[in-house]
Amino acid sequence: MAYIPTVESLDKIYDSSVLAFQGVRYNSLIEQFQTIYGFKPDFIARSPGRVNLIGEHIDYAGFGVFPMAIDRDVLMAVKMTDDDTNIRIANVNPKYPARELDYEGPSTIITIDSTELEWSNYFKCGYKGMLEHASFDKPKGMYILTDGNVPAGSGLSSSAAFVCCSALAVITGNQFKMSKNELVSIAMVAERNVGVNSGGMDQSASVFSEKGFALNVEFVPELKATPVPLPETHPKVAFVIANTLVVADKHVTAPRNYNLRVVETKIGAVTLSKYLGLPQKDTYKDVMDAYFAAKDIPPSEQMDEMLQLVEKAFTNKEGYTRAEMAELIGMDEDAMVKEYMTRFPVQTDLFRLYQRAVHVYGEAKRVIDFRGVCENPPSDASDVPKHLGDLMNESQESCAKLFNCSCPEIDEISKIAREAGAYGARLTGAGWGGCTVFLVAEDNVDSFIKEVKEKYYRKRFPDLSEAQLADAILATKPGSGSAVFKGF
Ligand code: NG1
Ligand code: MG
């Protein structure tokens, strides 16, 4: 089993181009820690954000996704103490005030008020998740200083980076031995404590990523992350991430978007399993597996067939009311609400089961195709960028039209990007704002970025400084996952 590396040198994590900057950042974190607390940290835990290349909103349907870690990350400098069980957590960013938290005993561990938008809640998620899984007499106290540079609410998984980093800090400080799989599984469930019914892509990408590789993360039959090298292409290509600067605040909007999509895909799966005469399943992946049980058919063909069945199963293409949906799955309406919409409440008039189902099976197929192009690229390397780009564009189209998770700004910047020469352009992460990702010829990256800056940012956000612009749109390479640094 792959255990979290306890000591990693910075140059293993970063290539030389970013190391100069990162080294300064680590040293400054240690210095600030000393200034605040009066002693040095024992270690620094780090977990990065991610960009999803393809496979949107299908992790919670049980299907594989294709993200990669980025250079932006969350760092936590930590000193442990046996004197008490308190947690003192501060942030180098003055926007996030220092907090003092306490361990509340083995049953509660720590109270999380998910109705409140509070930065330390994300630490609490990691803390609670870890301590629920460990048996010990008394956790150690902690002194923590955090420095995160993943833009928040932008679809680059600042939240998962934060929760994974917190979980890693708690494991390391309390000397729990734990595999990366366990860390991810716990962090994944733990993040639900802040009120978002999340899948597992972000935590997987943050923890498992390897420098130079994208990651195919699969969830069924068990969590599995396969590093996949990006193929040789002609011309050489790069991924550019651009933030629309529309902040998608999931904690406010989840009942109308993210959590609603989770409900629509779950109840859709129940509907489909019932239609096919299968035992009840609540993910589209489980429905497919049950339907094709023991038949040796390639997954992408299975997905094609599921797409045809979806056409027949969902006769109402407009959308279902709550009552209609309850009838569809043969459940009493109150019982259905209690089962699927109580812990994570949702708001809508119509549940668009059909559109979501078509998106899920189609997107799952695109992930397989994308990985296929990476692993078995067409013999002519000049065909590769178009292949990958087309899949990204189809994904965006499906997100916009079927899953309704795009927004006017994402549509606009994607169009600008394609006009500026991107092979593919799509939203990344949950959508409804946040970041987009483009596949661009490496030699054109500078002029491409310049053009998008002029046509999107200067027009919509004329007051942005150069520094803010540089933060909003940047080229990125697949970075490495979680690590712990010691010995300074
Ligand atoms: P963001 O909003 O980018 O963190 C969310 C989910 C993912 C996945 C994507 C959509 C969380 C923590 N993450 O990502 O699991 O479902 O949306 O593909 O909720
Ligand atoms: Mg998130």
Automatic annotation (TrEMBL):
GO MF term set: ATP binding; galactokinase activity
UniProt keywords, alphabetically: ATP-binding, Carbohydrate metabolism, Galactose metabolism, Kinase, Nucleotide-binding, Transferase
Record domain Galactokinase N-terminal: where: 31-79
Catalytic activity line of the entry: alpha-D-galactose + ATP = alpha-D-galactose 1-phosphate + ADP + H(+)
InterPro entries from the UniProt entry: Galactokinase (IPR000705), Galactokinase_CS (IPR019741), GalKase_N (IPR019539), GHMP_kinase_C_dom (IPR013750), GHMP_kinase_C_sf (IPR036554), GHMP_kinase_N_dom (IPR006204), GHMP_knse_ATP-bd_CS (IPR006203), Mevalonate/galactokinase (IPR006206)
Protein's GO biological process: galactose metabolic process; positive regulation of transcription by galactose
Domain called GHMP kinase N-terminal: residue spans: 121-209
E.C. number: 2.7.1.6
Top-level EC class: transferase
Domain GHMP kinase C-terminal: from-to ranges: 388-457
Presence of keyword DNA repair: no
Pathway annotation: Carbohydrate metabolism; galactose metabolism
Keyword hit for Cytoplasm: no
Family: Belongs to the GHMP kinase family. GalK subfamily.
Name assigned to this protein: Galactokinase
Organism the protein comes from: Bifiguratus adelaidae
